[in-house]
Specification:
Blueprint lengths: L1 H20 L16 H13 L9 H16 L4 E9 L2 E10 L6 E7 L9 H19 L7 E6 L13 H12 L3 E7 L14 H6 L6 E6 L4 H14 L3 E6 L12 H5 L4 E5 L21 H21 L4
Parallel strand pairs: 3-4, 3-5, 5-8, 6-7
Antiparallel strand pairs: 1-2, 2-4, 6-8
């Protein structure tokens, strides 16, 4: 009986590993050209998380300063940079969009929210994601692109807008659906800079499936997004030492807690790349979420991984 129980547990664990993590083999080579610069990433995080007043979307001056900075940095590239103004309740705000590559074709969207919860610094949440967008813009600008790539900084992700139609990503996703333009993939960057010797999970089974050391990022998607998740992991493996694991099953454990949810709502393939947020980072939504707590070397590795994903999908025209 004991042997039978142990065999049953082993089979259950194997099923969890296969169903949740979607193991894959092989790697994609890193595309020729420059790599991410940790010093530039830190500079962007410090600029966004130390500005006064903070980049709270309910504070017009604060959110405007952040938007102006993002626009300035993106405008240093050859991208077509534009604003997408909209009203969120009584707040008038804007998404910032930078489009690289040709006009026609199935676009790839990379997005991150630049607003912050309350009046907090928000270094990991989500200056880290925005810093990655800005560094990706620099790296994409140095490469020849065969598909349109769109970088989007969203201005209303945090409460009270989260989960509603006034999220910046919801506005952007609807605009693409209304235009009829096809999307090859959407990649959401949500907290990518915090790494730690110990990883926390909300339920015991996840300890059986995922790493115990917080030195990885997670590619989060639905079951129907598993091809995109697998492509991400192969590209990460060839681009960086930062491990990428995937969660490709039910989203009940926080899998929909960022901007990718609004592209799912429009039936586009989308994943979130994250350091697992509040599962790992004790500074989440606190005054301690400051620039000195982030690991910019590993952040640069994550950016290199995302760049490789985008370039391979763009070059192949498919997720396989």
């Amino acid at each position: 009986m004991l042997i039978g129980v142990l065999v049953g547990l082993a089979l259950l664990t194997l099923c969890l590993v296969v169903g949740l993590r979607m193991p894959t083999v092989g790697s994609d080579p890193f595309p020729d050209g420059p790599r991410a610069d940790p010093a530039l990433l830190r500079s962007h995080v410090e600029q966004l998380s130390t500005q006064v007043p903070p980049r709270n979307a309910e504070n017009p001056k604060g959110i405007g300063l952040a938007a102006d900075y993002i626009t300035l940095v993106l405008s240093r590239t050859r991208a077509v940079v534009s604003s997408q103004p909209y009203d969120a309740g009584r707040v008038s705000t804007r998404n910032i969009i930078a489009r690289f590559g040709p006009e026609a074709g199935r676009r790839i969207v990379i997005g991150a929210h630049y607003d912050v919860f309350g009046d907090l610094p928000g270094a990991d949440d989500n200056a880290s994601g925005v810093a990655a967008l800005l560094e990706l813009a620099r790296l994409l600008d140095a490469r020849k692109l065969v598909s349109p790539i769109e970088i989007v900084a969203y201005s209303t992700e945090e409460p009270p807008w989260f989960g509603g139609p006034e999220m910046g990503s919801a506005v952007h996703a609807r605009s693409i659906r209304n235009s009829g333009d096809p999307i090859a993939a959407m990649i959401c960057l949500e907290m990518i800079g915090y790494f730690t010797p110990r990883q926390r999970y909300p339920v015991l089974p996840l300890y059986l499936v995922y790493p115990w050391k917080g030195d990885f990022v997670t590619i989060v998607g639905r079951w129907q997004d598993r091809r995109l998740a697998l492509r991400c992991k192969r590209s990460f493996r060839g681009a960086t030492d930062v491990r990428a694991v995937s969660y490709s099953c039910p989203v009940a454990f926080g899998g929909d807690l960022s901007d990718h949810r609004n592209y799912w709502a429009e039936d586009y393939p989308a994943v979130m790349v994250t350091d697992t947020a509040f599962w790992r980072n004790p500074n989440y939504h606190s005054p301690d979420d400051v620039p000195d707590t982030l690991d910019y070397g590993r952040m640069a590795g994550v950016v290199n991984g995302i760049l490789a994903v985008v370039m391979h999908i763009s070059g192949d025209g498919d997720l396989d």
